[in-house]
Write a structure and sequence with these properties.
membrane; Multidrug ABC transporter permease; FLQE3_permease; transmembrane helix; disordered C terminus; single chain; 10 helices; mainly alpha; transmembrane; about 240 residues
Amino acid sequence: MSRLPVALRMEMLLQRRYKFLHAAAFSALLWIAVLLPVPPETRAILEPYIVFGDLGIVGFFFIAAAVFFEKDERTLGALANSPLRFREYLVAKLITLSGLSVLLSVLVATATRGLDYHLPLLVLGSALGALPMLVAGFCSALPFASAGDWFLLGMVPLTVLMAPVFHYAGVFEWPVFYLLPTQGPLQLIGASFGQNGISGPQLAYAVAYPLLFSAACLPLARRMFVRHALSGAGVAA
């Protein structure tokens, strides 16, 4: 049996144990409660920002929390002596948590506007936006012993990844924002709610860049994992 399906099942069990699903449901209900009383024209403006912001909560904070839970329970060291490879361990986290991000985005959008949105674009934008958040949250948490030590410095990469909201809102229309891997996914999310169009080249950029960025960060994530989580114990490639 392939190790990845086993890792996925294990990851889903751990997320239930850490109450991630409860926290995600609370987040969705909170955003729905905020959006429903708002007039439809204002709600249409707010929805892309709320969906994008929720990717930061689920993507960045949840995976960092998972790292700290696993450090506290001393389960990370067992990975070095198991058949599970690091890339399978991390990919399982990326798949399950990006899937949770997509689910929340669809729930919020459906609860607030029915089916009056472009589902494929919302799913694509949410999944691609979650990936850089997840990788950054994972790497940023590894050097720290506790969430308290991590929190302030951890806000730095999150702030950078959330910065495209300023470009999307027209506050700073600088081309430099296109260097951030969350710029394209935010455009996709906005397009899913009919706020902007998306051309062929924009779609290609929005899909390819977050994937390439996340893939390029994986070797760094592995090195940091071995150094900070396993204390040099080593892990299969």
